[in-house]
Amino acid sequence: MDQNLINAASPSANTSDLNTANAATGNLQADPSLLANSLPQDTLASPLIQDRIADFLNIGGPVVWILLLMSLVAVSIMLIKLWQFSKLKPERRTALDKSLTLWHKGEKSSAKVMLNSKYSVEKVTLVAMNGLMDSTVDKTLLKEELNRIAALKLEQLRSYLRPLEVIATLSPLLGLLGTVIGMIMAFQQMAAAGNQVDPSVLSGGIWQALLTTAVGLTVAIPVVAVHTWLERKVERVGSLMNDVVTQLFTSPVSAEKPAVNSKGLNHAA
User: Fold this and answer.
1) Which of 5, 17, 69, 199 has a CA-to-CA distance to 33 between 20 and 30 Å?
2) Under 8 Å CB-to-CB from 88, ≥6 apart: which residues?
3) Rounded to a whole number, what is the distance in angstroms from the first to the last CA of the chain?
4) What is the pLDDT of residue 28?
5) Which residues lie below 8 Å from residue 156, measured CB to CB, with a gap of 6+?
6) Is residue 174 within 8 Å of 67, Cβ to Cβ?
7) According to the UniProt record, where is the region Disordered (predicted)?
8) Cα 260 off chain centre by
9) Three-state DSSP string of the chain
């Protein structure tokens, strides 16, 4: 009898457990918030960001697309120039100062050993030292050769700076052009509406038109800053080349000056 009671009670207990499990499963399936909370936030935010970028490009029109392309070109050029300057190190002075010190002391062979021809300023310095140590070389021809090499090295450092200048100049102008076109379209919509003018149409057209100007300035400002900085670095390299070559050519004169001053002091004493 007890066994029959147990068998009779078992189906109902199993049925109750199954119903409870199905109810829990149904609640999970019916509540999408639980699934949304279980997903990473980055996964949910990525489509929203992509949609906003797409809307931004569609509202800006072809002008924004052109500005975006110009910004990509500008970033690529800036990365190339930074890599070039970090590799060539045109403004490094440690080896130059040591070499010039040895040159003024008369240790000309040791001065040449301190320099590396793969660097721009040191290449010009080596050519000048070799020419001055060779008595058969005409000084006028040596100066012409130094000018040629220095101009070539500086031109290499100035490479790709002109495209940056063009992008910095055209970006705000393109943004202004997009603004003018957008304003024309907004006023055309107002004229087409006649007496039933909706202020929201005008305000919407204006902010869409001003968007291109904002994008143009956003592209131009950092490009102008980087271009000016790189131009200044090239100017400093040119001044350094001129200073080093002048010191090499005037080193005998500068070496004689202390002797003249010491004699004057002896006579005064």
Assistant:
1) 17
2) 118, 119, 120, 157
3) 140
4) 41
5) 120
6) yes
7) 1-20
8) 53
9) CHHHHHHHHHHHHHHHHHHHHHHHHHHHHHCHHHHHHHCCHHHHHHHHHHHHHHHHHHHHCHHHHHHHHHHHHHHHHHHHHHHHHHHHCCCCCHHHHHHHHHHHCCCHHHHHHCCCCCCHHHHHHHHHHHHHHCCCCCHHHHHHHHHHHHHHHHHHHCCCHHHHHHHHHHHHHHHHHHHHHHHHHHHHHHHHHCCCCCHHHHHHHHHHHHHHHHHHHHHHHHHHHHHHHHHHHHHHHHHHHHHHHHHHHCHHHHHHHHHHHHHHHHHHC
Query: 230 with 113: CB under 8 angstroms?
Result: no
pLDDT given for residue 235 in this prediction: 92
**8 A C-beta contact, residue 171 and residue 197:** no
**What is the band of 204 on the pLDDT scale with cuts at 50, 70, 90?**
low
Q: In the structure encoding, which two tokens stand for residue 209, read together?
A: 């038109």
Question: Which amino acid appears at position 192 of this protein?
Answer: A
Place of tokens 């500005």: 67
Locus of tokens 């031109």: 155
| Furthest C-alpha separation in the chain | 141
